[in-house]
Design brief:
Number of helices: 4
Number of strands: 5
Radius of gyration: 17 Å
Structural class: alpha/beta
Oligomer: single chain
Strand order of the largest sheet: 1-5-4-3-2
Shape: globular
Length: about 140
């Protein structure tokens, strides 16, 4: 995941059709995605998780492959779940340092459940590897 400080984030230029800024009340299925390369999803408060659902819908159901950027009240402890939900970039809340963010990812090396970028549960990978090993033997 790409981590940006508040100061490094640039809002899209006026009239830039390749970047959408989407309020967290908007259903992603109602958005025209043709030509869109980046979608900014907003967290008005860290306790409001609707943007997680939007990101997941964009990745899994709508097949959006561009950048999904988290903006707003983004805290370091949210980053791992953001990445698992389909976000590719996070803009940290003003005053937070991006170098501290990597420690959050270092704490969690892997997950049992599937997620937006790897939908199959991880035990399925082990099962497939075992079957492949048995066939090769």
């Amino acid at each position: 995941m790409n981590i940006l400080t508040f100061e490094a984030h640039q809002a899209p230029a006026e009239g830039d059709a390749s970047t959408l800024v989407v309020d967290n009340t908007v259903d992603p299925r109602s958005i025209a995605l043709d030509g869109v390369q980046r979608i900014d999803l907003h967290f008005p408060k860290f306790t409001d998780g609707r943007a997680y659902s939007q990101a997941y819908l964009l990745r899994r159901r709508l097949g959006f492959t561009g950048e999904i950027r988290a903006t707003g009240d983004v805290l370091i402890d949210q980053l791992v779940q953001m990445a698992r939900s389909g976000f590719t970039t996070a803009v940290l809340r003003q005053g937070l340092k991006a170098d501290a963010a990597q420690r959050q990812f270092d704490r969690f090396k892997g997950f049992y459940q599937g997620d937006a970028s790897h939908p199959a549960p991880h035990f399925a990978d082990a099962d497939a590897a075992e079957v492949e090993h048995q066939v090769a033997a």
